[in-house]
Amino acid sequence: MAASRLSFRRDGKLVIDGVDVSVPVGSFGAVIGPNGAGKSTLLHLLVGTLPAESGAVLFDGSDLLELRRRDRARIVALSEQHGDGDTGLAVTDVVMLGRTPHIGRFASEGETDRRIVADALAAVGMSPFAERSFDTLSGGERQRVHLARALAQQPRLLLLDEPTNHLDVRAQLSLLSLVRAQTAAGITAIAALHDLNIAAAYADSVIVLSAGRVIAAGNVASVLTSELIGDVYGVRADVLTHPRTGRPLIAFDTT
Ligand SMILES: Nc1ncnc2c1ncn2[C@@H]1O[C@H](COP(=O)(O)OP(=O)(O)OP(=O)(O)O)[C@@H](O)[C@H]1O
């Protein structure tokens, strides 16, 4: 996946300013950066729910931004943390919405769609909640249903906006393992993350956004240095090496 020169303006102000993002197929890219840096906006540009002012998103030979909505939705899905007011739907129906781009215009869901939805719910550990009203779920349960809906869409490019938000530590690790399993199966994943240690532990590459611009990008170890963390977030941190994985381990200075 290679996005180039993406720009987006709000109230005349560039909030995404000529951004290039490249994430190899079948790998996991983390987008990090301070509040308001433009991470969510960038994901929305990639999935086409916000219109880019300029730029292209090349994936498997086509520019996703040029595709019709339905065709694009067969390739790229965004698991969001917001946008879930009262739906009045059962959990299984929310996840079935992910099948919309695959179901013929005048057709209805079939056995295959129901199996894919059941598998997606099982993958996120939400099968026991299938018939519950989505509106009664906790924040973490909703987050997992959002992911199930994106998985049911069977995208080749999976975008996740702060997917670990609301999740307890075990649910966080299991979600990231699930993303890792997806990339091992050839899916390309891009997640906006706040937890730098989660990014360091799971991502293959990191893209650092600040004020709508990419200020660093590359593999985790080369990008996540104490200098960069200091520059971007204005905090002090030592970057250690995880004793078993060899990946960066960030210890914030709280003294
Ligand atoms: N609906 C909106 N209307 C006006 N400005 C917005 C809107 N949504 C976002 N913005 C602004 O656009 C900029 C980028 O926001 P965005 O949500 O993409 O940042 P982010 O990096 O995802 O932030 P966070 O880490 O806080 O979730 C911010 O300055 C934000 O205030």
Automatic annotation (TrEMBL):
Keywords: ATP-binding, Nucleotide-binding, Transport
A GO term for molecular function: ATP binding
The keyword Cytoplasm appears for this protein: no
Pfam name, any one: ABC_tran
SMART domains cross-referenced by the UniProt entry: AAA
Transmembrane segments: none
Domain of life of the organism encoding this protein: Bacteria
Residue intervals of the ABC transporter domain: 1-236
Stated name of the protein: ATP-binding cassette domain-containing protein
Originating species: Mycetocola zhadangensis
